[in-house]
Amino acid sequence: MSGKSVIFFDIDGTLLDHDKNLPTSTKKAIKKLKLDGHIVAIATGRAPFMYEDLREELGIDTYVSYNGQFVVVEGEIVYTNPLNLEALEELTAVGLSKDHPIVYMDDKDMKTNVPSHEFISESIATLKIKQFPTHDPNYYKDREIYQSLFFCTEGEEKFYQEKFPLFDFVRWHPVSVDVVPKGGSKANGIKQAMKAIGISEDNQYAFGDGLNDLEMLSTVTHSVAMGNAKEEVKAVSKYITKDVDQDGIVHGLELVGLLEK
């Protein structure tokens, strides 16, 4: 494959600003990276269908979705890591008994196990995506589910972490957590992508801001935390750039020497 380096970008709060818009400066910077022969990739907790428009706009065909559970390199699926079906079924049942609904997600769609719930509406709305999950409580039974959204308030996930050792629960919203296979992370997804891409660790870069970026920014050689990142994220990153709303991507690429100042 061509390309001097590979740069993985998180989406929310990194590529997209706080209003879920793509800054003009970021779009120009990514175009320049590609012209210089670099591979620009995405590493996100989002489902592939949640950012098709963004991939098309930026000309990106290498991406790590679902926090590492669904990996595509140059348009080809190279790695999948679905949730354990029996444990998912039990999580669903326990959650229902506590009024904690769930959304099942594969690479094509997402479905809820309840007709409606305020936590689902509240958290999904913040993503500002076209697609909203519809009701199908049996959706998980005949397909691979790579991630689920589980809805509970902060702190309530501790009970589930202890009860379901096959899963990791990563909070992304005050009323919602991502449910991924134990040990599944963007870092592992990037590792799987790198097997296909074949670029040395010295030429790997990653930008992020959220708790689901911790493993990625702890392991990728050149890690950049956004100025709006959580303090835990900044603590594990080699570089800290400006806020996403202050041309943070451009500044970060200058910091690591991928763009000239």
TrEMBL record:
<dbReference type="Pfam" id="PF08282">
    <property type="entry name" value="Hydrolase_3"/>
</dbReference>
<dbReference type="InterPro" id="IPR000150">
    <property type="entry name" value="Cof"/>
</dbReference>
<dbReference type="GO" id="GO:0000287">
    <property type="term" value="F:magnesium ion binding"/>
</dbReference>
<dbReference type="GO" id="GO:0016791">
    <property type="term" value="F:phosphatase activity"/>
</dbReference>
<dbReference type="InterPro" id="IPR006379">
    <property type="entry name" value="HAD-SF_hydro_IIB"/>
</dbReference>
<dbReference type="InterPro" id="IPR036412">
    <property type="entry name" value="HAD-like_sf"/>
</dbReference>
<dbReference type="InterPro" id="IPR023214">
    <property type="entry name" value="HAD_sf"/>
</dbReference>
<dbReference type="GO" id="GO:0005829">
    <property type="term" value="C:cytosol"/>
</dbReference>
<protein>
    <submittedName>
        <fullName>Phosphatase</fullName>
    </submittedName>
</protein>
